[in-house]
Amino acid sequence: MPRASHPSSSVVDDAAVVRAVIEWFRREARVLPWREVSAYAWGVLVSEVMLQQTPVSRVLPLWREWMKRWPSPEALAAARQEDVVRAWGQLGYPMRARRLWQCAGAIVRDHDGVVPSDEATLRTLPGLGDYTAAAVAAFGFGVRTVVLDTNVRRVVARVWGGVPLPPGHLTRTERERAAALVPEDPAESVEWNIGAMELGALVCRSHGPRCEECPISDVCAWFNAGRPEASARRASSQPWQGSDRQVRGRVMALLRGSDAPVNVTGHASLLDVPPGQLDRCLAALVADGLARIVSEERGTYAL
């Protein structure tokens, strides 16, 4: 794979590295529908919410279906919440579907149905944190900003910090380092943000990095140090099997699959779940607004 030319020295030439990543992205970028101009800011916003902790391969078909069904904030805001949650299907974390529906409602109610371009205003919408607000501003409107997802953070940590992974939580120093890399030109800033993200997703991966394909490995502090491993493993996440997340997912699958109330507590697929755990998971889904009690005595619930 051809590499963009940039100086190799003990002192990293930030501008040259940024340019190399932009040139790499122009050659190697995946063709994704939300990157097309026709997707506009709403399509970008939907994609960013769907892509949270979810791979592109799973998001692609649902994003296309979603945009056909609800091509604008007005269309989604007019839908019933239960239909929105049902359409979310197996994408995981159904609270994201509810938040996206609430976000559409806020856009219609407070912004005349137009996705705001201002990053601070975007952060006021339901479910949009710092990263998502910055991503929508950058990729939906071409705004110069700092977009920091896990992929970008990993690239910056390895190239400039010489460490295999970024800190568990975003630090001020890390943000300042990333902000200093963003080109002044808005168009180039967008290319850098999305290029660094793509590089982290496809090449500078958390596991099995493809350093031989990286356009900037010759100036990467981590690569030149011999790719040292993390000194300690991060705490592992809760196992899926038998977890509350799995039980909530099974309950949601039952409710999505029926237009009528479901006897959840007596359903065969949940008989092996300890009563206390099932009660806890049902209470959490009701508190989150994802399920409603039809008859507590009969154990029936609905979306």
Describe the structure.
- By secondary structure, this protein is an all-alpha fold.
- The protein folds into two domains: 1-235, Hypothetical protein, domain 2 (Endonuclease III, domain 1, Orthogonal Bundle); 244-302.
- It contains 14 helices and three strands.
- The chain has helices at 14-28, 40-50, 56-69, 73-77, 81-88, 95-111, 119-122, 130-141, 150-161, 172-181, 186-202, 221-224, 244-256, 275-287, and strands spanning 262-263, 292-295, 300-302.
- A hairpin with a 4-residue loop joins β2 (292-295) and β3 (300-302).
- The N and C termini lie far apart (51 Å).
- The model is unreliable at 1-10 (pLDDT under 50).
Short description:
The chain is mainly alpha-helical and 303 residues long. It has 14 helices and three strands.
Helices and strands in order, then pairings?
Blueprint: H1 14-28, H2 40-50, H3 56-69, H4 73-77, H5 81-88, H6 95-111, H7 119-122, H8 130-141, H9 150-161, H10 172-181, H11 186-202, H12 221-224, H13 244-256, E1 262-263, H14 275-287, E2 292-295, E3 300-302
Antiparallel strand pairs: 1-3, 2-3
Number of H/I helices: 14
Q: What's the rounded overall pLDDT mean?
A: 91
Share of residues in strands: under 5%
**CATH-defined architecture of the largest domain:** Orthogonal Bundle
Instruction: Report the CATH topology name of the largest domain.
Output: Endonuclease III, domain 1
Can you identify the CATH superfamily of the largest domain?
Answer: Hypothetical protein, domain 2
Report the principal-axis shape: globular
Q: Tell me the count of domains.
A: 2
- State the separation between the terminal residues, measured CA to CA: 51 Å
